[in-house]
Specification:
Elements lengths: L1 H32 L4 E6 L17 H18 L3 E4 L14 H15 L3 E8 L10 E4 L4 H21 L7 E2 L3 H4 L5 E8 L3 H7 L2 H20 L5
Parallel strand pairs: 1-2, 1-3, 3-6, 4-5
Antiparallel strand pairs: 4-6
The structure holds zinc ion.
Length: 230
């Protein structure tokens, strides 16, 4: 009798353990199914391609792009996203003289193999008139999702634009390789105009960079989690 009871108890315990294990597996499966979205961050230019230069300090756009991208990566990671960057250093991993095309193709390969939820390319702008200021977003007009992403980013950045420049902008369409090279929602964020001394000062300030990456991260979150089309 005692043995039979013990056997019954053991059977009950084994069943309970099995149910628990299955339940845990179930949770693990769910977690895997709802894995954090992966964002590709593309710091524009690099290596011998410095991009545009600052009106006052002659700072290279490529350096600012990388520093803002590193800050954006930090912020997105803090918010629970996964990230992949198309370059992580200012020098050897990027562009050597005469290899701009190969560098862009390498970025495309990184994007395709990452299979991301979206791509954000970080740049700084220039304009013949030095009075032009503010953050401006670009999208591929043939990509509906790219346009939706750009709108979210621009709306978010306009909160900063209104404070710093006194006006907002509309996201613009553009024919750029990084926007056309993959099927994923993609946008270029031109963080400000290095042809304007005031924007240049902001782009070099840690305080403004923090506000900028927060605005970009907010735009990404709204695109992924709020847009009804998603
Ligand atoms: Zn650029």
């Amino acid at each position: 009798m005692f043995r039979a009871k013990t056997a019954l108890l053991i059977t009950a315990c084994v069943t309970a353990i099995a149910v628990t294990v299955l339940a845990v597996w179930g949770v693990a499966d769910l977690k895997q199914a709802s894995a954090a979205p992966l964002i590709v961050i593309d710091p524009g230019h690099g290596g011998t391609d410095g991009g545009v230069t600052g009106a006052e300090t002659k700072v290279k756009e490529a350096e600012i792009n990388l520093e803002i991208s590193l800050l954006l990566e930090e912020e997105l990671t803090r918010r629970g996203f996964n990230t992949v960057k198309t370059r992580s250093s200012s020098g050897t991993a990027a562009i050597v003289a005469g290899e701009k095309q190969q560098d862009m193709e390498r970025r495309k390969e990184i994007i395709l193999s990452a299979n991301p939820s979206l791509v954000v390319s970080i740049h700084c702008n220039k304009f013949p008139s030095s009075s032009r200021r503010g953050a401006q977003v670009f999208f591929n007009p043939l990509s509906e999702s790219g346009q939706a992403l750009a709108k979210r980013l621009q709306d978010s950045l306009n909160i900063l634009n209104l404070v710093e420049v006194g006006r907002g902008y509309t996201a613009l369409s553009g024919d750029y390789y990084i926007l056309n090279c993959s099927p994923y929602p993609s946008a270029i964020v031109e963080c400000g105009f290095l042809s304007n001394a005031e924007d240049e000062r902001l782009l070099l300030s840690q305080d403004y960079r923090t506000k900028l990456v927060n605005a970009v991260a907010d735009g990404i979150q709204r695109f992924l989690f709020t847009d009804s089309s998603r």
